């Protein structure tokens, strides 16, 4: 990993690198055990229990999922009654999501190919009751203030943003979780050159360069409030969705009052608990 302090990762360069990386990884993800699309087609719900509680009843609500990837979370909301639109900049991801929607009987689910910042024009000025952004999304966005303004413009009056993300504190840990490995305030651009993918570490890949940004909790809350949204809560959780550091204990998700079938990972007993996930809900007047 390098920190491109010389700003050599121009807008075109970072977007091209990240787009090539995700286009290549979509077919790996759709065929992976990590995503287990066969299990999803059979009815598995990919939402976490705390998300269901914090978002609430979505029946009949218009829900937009930004950076939806292959659509498993999007379609999980659809199965719970939401009228869903998923948006992603990867044509391969959008195609996979549309195919999956047809397979699970959610033909009304809509998937749109677009960069996040271009979402208002791509969606024709449409607004939504809920804008949802899920795990591992914000690190791909260089302009958090612009993202928040985009979200605010996509919300109907009385609507809300719901964000569930990996906590930046957890992302700074060493592999063994015993020390800091990254600077919490090193916002980026951070350039990586790593083969494989989180869904299959050994998968052969050609497009391995990615450019990412780290956003502190303060950055997120400040961007949301500056965009005119009113934070309702910010919550932190001591588990992750993958083995973020070595030695984590695999458990069934028991968060919330309606725990799902998801698997979570915690630091073993006797180790200090740390925030690994956070959620934020903010409403538009």
Strand-residue proportion? 15-25%
> Mean pLDDT across all residues, rounded?
92
What is the number of helical segments per DSSP (H or I, 4+ residues)?
Answer: 8
Report the CATH superfamily. Answer: Vaccinia Virus protein VP39
What portion of residues is helical?
25-40%
Q: Structural class of the helices, strands and pairings?
A: alpha/beta
* Topology, number of strands: 13
Amino-to-carboxy terminus distance: 41 Å
Overall shape: it is globular
CA-atom Rg in angstroms: 18 Å
Following the backbone from N to C, one meets helices and strands in this order, namely EHHHEHEHEHEHEEEHEEEEE
For the biggest β-sheet, the strand order reads: 4-3-2-5-6-13-9
User: Uncertain spans, ≥5 residues at pLDDT below 50?
Assistant: 1-9
What multimeric state do the chains show?
A: single chain
CATH C-level class:
Alpha Beta
| CATH T-level fold name | Rossmann fold
> What is the total number of structural domains?
1
